[in-house]
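Q: Could you write out the predicted structure for this multi-component system? I'm mainly interested in how the pieces pack against one another.
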Amino acid sequence: MMLTGVPLALFMIVGTIAIASSILVVSMRNPVHSALFLLLTFLCVAIFFVMLGAEFVGAVQVLVYAGGIMVLFLFVVMLINVKALPTERVFTPGSIGGVMMGILLFLILAIVLGSGKWSPRVNEPDNVRSTTTVVTAPVTDAGGVTVQTETSETTVVGNSEAVGMALYRDYLVPFEVASLFLLVAMIGAIVIGKRDLNASEEESIPDFVAKKVADEERIKGVTGA
Amino acid sequence: MSATLPVVASMFGSIPEPIVNYVIWPTTKFVIAFAVIMGIVAFTTLVERRVLGFMQARLGPNRVGPQGILQFVADPIKLLLKEDIVPAGAQKAAYFIAPMLPIIPAFLAFCLIPFGPPPTFAIADVNVGLLLVLALTSTGVYGIILGGWASNNKFSLLGGLRSAAQMVSYEVPFGLSIVGVLMLTGSLSLVEIVRYQEQSVWNVLPQLIGCFIFLVAMTAEVNRAPFDLPEAESELVAGFHTEYSGMKFAFFFLAEYASMLVNACLIVLLFFGGWTAAIAGHGLTTAAMQSMGWLGMILGFLIFGAKVAFFMILYIWFRGTFPRYRFDQLMDLGWKWMIPLALANIVVTGLVILIAQSGGAS
C-alpha cells in the first residue's frame, strides 16, 4: 500500500515519534520516564491502527494499554519507589547481544514483509471488514424442476462488527481457550502472591520485612552493646 | 453540511468541498464548543459554591456582581496573578507537563459528543464514538499521577497513587455498565444510541442497574465526593495538587470540571434519551426536530442542556450529602459490589434479549 501526501507525512511523523520513544523506553535512567515513553509508544501504535482503518482496535489499544495497563505500571513503579539507575552507561556483553538480536529480527521481518505477500490488498479495502455468507435458495427453472442454487452475499459491516464476528463466530474456540489460559495464569499469580491466611500474625509478615526487622535488631545489638 | 446551512456555506464558495467539510466546519464547531465549554466550566465553579452554600444554609460568594454572578471572572484573574511556585527537588519537566495532560483528553472527548440533533451539533459522528470517548477519559488520570509524583511531596505522591488505583478499579464497572446499553441498541455510535431510545424508551428503564453503576463509576472517575480520595483534604492536605499554585492549580480543576461535563453528557446520551423528548417514536424525535429547521436544532440543544445541567447539579448534591469513603471501602465497593453487579446485569440483559428474540421468531 503506497502512501502519498498528508497520510505519508503523518505516517513519517508518528513513525519517527514511535521509534524514538521506544528507544527512549530502554535508554532512560528513571523508570517513571521509561514508563511514560512506553505510553507514548502505545499512543503512536493506536494512531497506526486508525490509519489502517481499524478504529475499533485503535480505540481498544488506548483504552486497555494506555488507560489500564500503563496506569498499573506507573502505580507499581511509584509504589515500590524504584531508584533511578546510575547515569554512567556500561555496555555489557548482554546489551551488545540484545542489539545484535534486534538487528537480526529487523532483518528477518524486512525480508518477510518486504516481499509484499502480507500487505493488505490495495484495491479491495472493504475486503478487510466484510462478511460473506452463502445463501441457499430454491429456484424453479423453466422446466419446473426446483434446484438449490448457492449465491454468496457479501455484506460490508462496521469495524466492531467485523472484530466481533471474527472473535465470537469464526474463532470462538481458540478465543475461549486463550481466555481460559489467562484465567489460569491470573489464579496462579494470586496463589503465589497471597500470604498464608491460616498462618499466625507473625508468620504472615512477608520475607523482606522480616529480614529488615532482623537486620535492625542485629544492628541495634552491635551498636547498643 | 452545505444543504442545511446554505447561507454560511456560500461564504466558502471558492474553497474545495472536502476542505470545507473535513477541516473548516469541524474546526469552527470545535472552537465554538471550546469557548462554550470553558464558559460552562467556569460558571459551574460558581454554581457549585452557591448550591453548596444553599444546602449548608449559608450564603456562598455573593459580592462580585449581582448575586456573586461575576465570581467566575474574578477567580481566573486571581489565579493568573498568583505566584507560581516550583518546589525544590521537583521533577521539573514532569511537574510542568502534568497540569496540561488531563485537559487534552477532556476537551478532545467533546469532539465526539453530539450536543443536539445531527448534523449541526455533532462535531464528529464516529462509528466507534462511545469507545473513543471511554478511551480518552481513561487517559485523563496521567496528569494526576504524574503531578503527584513530580511534586516531591509525600502527600502528593499518596494522592497520585490513590488516583491510579481508583481509576483502574472504577474503569472496569464504568465500561461494563455500558455493555447492557450496547446490547440493546447494537451500536457504538452515540447518535444511533439516541435514535434507538426515541423509538422505544429511555435506556434508564430497561437498564436501571446499569444506569446506577454508571452514575457511581462516573462520580468515582472524576474524583468527586464521596470518592475524592486523591485530594482528601482531611488526610492528605490537598492530595496530588498540594504543591501546585496559580494557573497550574487551575488547570487541574479545569480538567476535572470538563471531565464532569463529559460524563454528564455521556449519561444523558446513554440512559436519558440525549436531545430528544420522545417515547416510542412520539413527541420531539430527531426527525421532528430536523423538520423544524433551526428552531428544532436549538430546541434539541436546550433539552440536552437541561438534562446535562441536572446531572451537574447532582454531582454537587452528592458532595453536599455523602461523607467521604475510606480507601478500603472504596476498593471493596468497586471490586466486590460494582463489578459482580455489572456482570450480572449483562447476563440478565442477554437472557432477556434472547428470550424476546426467540419469542418474536416463533
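A: Regarding packing and overall arrangement: Chain A is about 65% helix and 10% strand.
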